[in-house]
Every structure is written in C-alpha cells, then in structure tokens.
TrEMBL record:
This is Methyltransferase family protein. GO terms for biological process: methylation. It comes from the Bacteria. Residues 311-382 form the THUMP-like domain. The keyword Magnesium does not apply. Residues 100-164 form the Methyltransferase domain. It comes from Kribbella voronezhensis. InterPro entries: Methyltransf_25, SAM-dependent_MTases_sf, Thump-like. SUPFAM superfamilies: S-adenosyl-L-methionine-dependent methyltransferases. Keywords: Methyltransferase, Transferase. GO terms for molecular function: methyltransferase activity. Pfam families: Methyltransf_25, Thump_like.
Length: 385
C-alpha cells in the first residue's frame, strides 16, 4: 500500500517536502531532486500525493486538501465539500448527533462532512487503500470516526440510525450513467431506502426509479448540477422532488400548474437542478411569469425579478431562426462575443457560433428554442446576477 509509506515519520517528511515544492508539470524534476535523499517508492508516493492534493483544492478547499490523503479514483469520486456539508447539515438538523454508516465511503469526503456536522460516523469501504485514506483523513482533520474494510452488502446496518450510500458510478475507469450499474448494486441501494437513509445518485436518475415515499433532491453548485440525493424514512421531507441551489441554499419543492404564453420582456433560464427536478413552474411563479412552451424549460415574464432559481435575459428582438438572417444580424450589430443558449432544438451552439462568424466589439446572447413546432431565436442581453 503506497499510502502507508507516507504515514510514518520519514514518509511524512518526504510528503511535506514534496507538497511545498510541488508545481504542476514539474513532477519529474521533483522526483529527481527528492530521489537524491530518499527511497524511490516513498518519493513516487509523495509526489503523486502532492499532485492529488493540488487537484483536490477545487473540491475540498486549500486548507483541508493540504492535510488530506487521496487515491486518484478516490479523489475523482469524492463529494465536494459544499455538497457534502449541505447533506450532512440536513441529517444533523433532523437527527442531531445520530449514528451514520457510510456504505462505500471512498476516501471519506462525505464522512468528513458528516463528522463535522456532529454525526457519529462509521465508514465501510471494500478497497483497503481507499479505506486507509478515509481513516487517515479523519485523523488528519481531527475528527472522530471509524473506517472498516468490508463489503457494504454484508454489513448489519440495523445498529445505525442513518444509512448513507454514495455508490460507485464508475466501471473500468468510465462513468456509469445507468443506476442499475452502480456498485453496490441498485437492488441493494433501493432496499436501504426502506430505512432512514440518504443515497447519493447521478442527477440523470429517472423520476420513476425513485421509490414512492422517497424524496429526490437535485443539487447544483455554482450553477452546475452535481447529484440527486434520495431521502427516506425520518429524513423524508414530505415531498417527492426538490431542487436546491448551492452555495446560497435556495430550495424549491412545489411546482404550480404550467401556463404557456407569448414571450415577455425577459426570459428566465432555470437552474439545471430545477429543470432536472421538473420544477420549472416554480420559477414562473417566483417571477410572475409563464412558460414559452409547456414542454420547454424557458420561463418568460414582463417583470424583472431577482431570483436565485434562474439566469435572466432581457429580450431585445425576435429573429427568424435562419442561418443567413442570423449571420446578417451578427454582422449588422458588430457582435464579436456571442453566447448561444438553446433548448428543444437540435443545434450545437459551438458549431452555430462558428457559422455565424462573430466579429466586432459588441456582445449578445442568442436564445434558440422551439414554440410549438417552430424554432425561434431571441436576441437578448444577459442581466447580471
Ligand atoms: C463514489 S465512491 C464514495 C465517495 C465518497 N462518498 C466520498 O465523498 O469520498 C464509492 C465507493 O464505494 C466503494 N464500493 C463499491 N462497492 C462497494 C461494496 N460493495 N462494498 C464496499 N464498498 C464499495 C468503492 O470502492 C468506492 O470507493
């Protein structure tokens, strides 16, 4: 196990040196320098770890990343701390100080968030190296908790108040999108949802795969949809679907009936979590608007209402959705920076942008969508958040 090489006094010294001298792209030179004084195996492990810590800053922040231990897969699959903290806070708010077993805890991203929220954590991980990283991470961050090497499916979970699982969504190094291909398998995961549980799944989970009496919460962070969390038992919030937008924490759960109407002065583009949760009409309600088309996730309104749930664009004019007309518009307006948004039409924004050949000092947003059977385009101005 390469990780254990870094935990003894010599390993820690080499790791500290590797981390302080680390610069992306300079790995080979760093290995060469450290090799003059230290054993090859420990140097390779230290430089690899330094590079993983550098990459981990985006997920865990500089302060924690500098103290944590990773495996390449473990870092790739770990939950970013913003999202883990949000989930852990919800568990702790409902069941303060509860005992939580994390089945398939990886390097412990979620375990750390749960321990910090005051939950009593036990991690189960089948890969010994990954489990060692999780254990080392709790210790390095001064958190209590236990990590055991084992098969999630063989655990007796009855002694814990909450079961948490973030099943592996990778096979042979590739991302798995079908929930039936998770490990531990969906058959096992869906049984956990008969207890008080929280299960993290990919945001593409079909709505009809979520068992009755379980809440699915789609979560985005800085506008990017990260996951859906399934909540059951005492953690069920009494609603089938929810969207939560981090870092602010705005959350919606009810969708009023959809109303369709003509384009207003503004177009609102709902956050991806709201769209995935099927709660677009909540945005319409929040801004006093309606949908451009019942099947498409664009809201329109005459009022400019600040909402965390959507990006807002002021409509300048409606344009014919024909390449020649659009190219003439780009040229006439001197548009050099062209943002293209689309929903409901089969167009690749990057390809269309290239074909429209933007050149000039002006900037604009083009929203391409479908109303009924017709494709339409709107020239817009993005309203800053
Ligand atoms: C997506 S990762 C967990 C990431 C973790 N939540 C975090 O934030 O760091 C899933 C983990 O489950 C482990 N795993 C998969 N099947 C398992 C099983 N049957 N028993 C125990 N662990 C398993 C994998 O080795 C992997 O480390």
């Amino acid at each position: 196990m390469t990780l254990t090489l870094l935990l003894d006094p010599i390993g820690s010294t080499v790791l500290a040196e590797a981390c302080s001298a680390y610069a992306p792209g300079g790995e080979l030179k760093l290995v060469e320098q450290l090799r003059r004084r230290y054993d090859a195996a420990v140097v390779t492990a230290a430089v690899t770890q330094a590079s993983l810590r550098h990459r981990a800053v985006a997920k865990f922040g500089a302060e924690d990343a500098a103290r944590m231990y990773f495996t390449p897969d473990g870092l790739e699959q770990a939950t970013r701390s913003t999202v883990g903290t949000h989930r852990a806070a919800r568990i702790a708010a409902t069941l303060p100080g509860a005992s939580v077993v994390d089945l398939g805890c990886g390097i412990g991203g979620d375990l750390i968030s749960a321990a910090r929220a005051g939950l009593r954590v036990t991690g189960v991980e089948r890969d010994p190296e990954t489990a060692a990283a999780a254990r080392a991470n709790l210790a390095a961050l001064g958190l209590a908790g236990e990590v055991v090497v084992g098969d999630a499916e063989a655990q007796d979970v009855t002694q814990y108040e909450v079961v948490f699982a973030d099943p592996a969504r990778r096979a042979d190094g590739r991302r798995v999108f079908d929930h039936n291909a998770y490990s531990p398998p969906w058959s096992f995961i869906s049984e956990l949802l008969e207890r008080t549980a929280c299960v993290k799944v990919a945001p593409g989970i079909p709505h009809d795969a979520v068992p009755a009496g379980v809440e699915a919460e789609w979560v985005s962070d800085a506008g990017e949809v990260k996951e859906a969390a399934l909540w059951s038992g005492k953690l069920y919030g009494g609603t089938a679907r929810r969207a939560t937008l981090l870092p602010g924490g705005a959350t919606v759960a009810a969708a009023p009936e959809a109303v369709e109407g003509p384009v207003g002065r503004y177009i609102y583009e709902p956050d991806g979590a709201v769209v995935r949760a099927g709660l677009v009409t909540a945005v319409a309600e929040a801004v006093g608007g309606w949908l451009l088309d019942l099947r498409i996730a664009y809201v329109t309104a005459d009022a400019l209402v600040a909402t965390p749930l959507a990006s807002v664009y002021e409509v300048i004019e409606e344009l014919p959705y024909r390449e020649k007309a659009l190219r003439a518009w780009v040229r006439a307006q001197g548009i050099g920076t062209l943002e293209i948004k689309k929903r409901g039409v089969d167009v690749d924004p990057a390809v269309l942008r290239k074909r429209l050949a933007p050149k000039g000092a002006a900037s604009a947003t083009l929203i391409v969508t479908r109303i009924g059977r017709d494709a339409v385009a709107y020239s817009c101005r993005r309203i800053p958040a």
